[in-house]
Design a protein that fits this description.
alpha+beta; two-stranded parallel sheet
């Protein structure tokens, strides 16, 4: 069981956003749970812009894993 978070700026010149879309689609086709967030006007260095999404993803998936491990 795999959960993946993809965070990508739509103005990233190092890695086109189309690559993030392809990755997300390929992972979903293989049964992974994929959450994507695309940031308008953001480049490769997203920095603090991703904090809320990253924290929410980690809370949801790490707390789920902790609950399963203790039951």
């Amino acid at each position: 069981d795999c959960s993946v978070l993809i965070l990508h700026g739509d103005r990233d010149k190092a890695m086109p956003v189309s690559q993030a879309v392809r990755l997300a689609n390929a992972l979903k086709e293989r049964g992974a749970r994929v959450e994507t967030h695309y940031f308008p006007k953001a480049s490769h260095d997203l920095g603090r812009r991703v904090d809320p999404e990253l924290r929410a993803f980690l809370r949801a998936h790490l707390l789920d894993a902790d609950a399963e491990a203790t039951s």
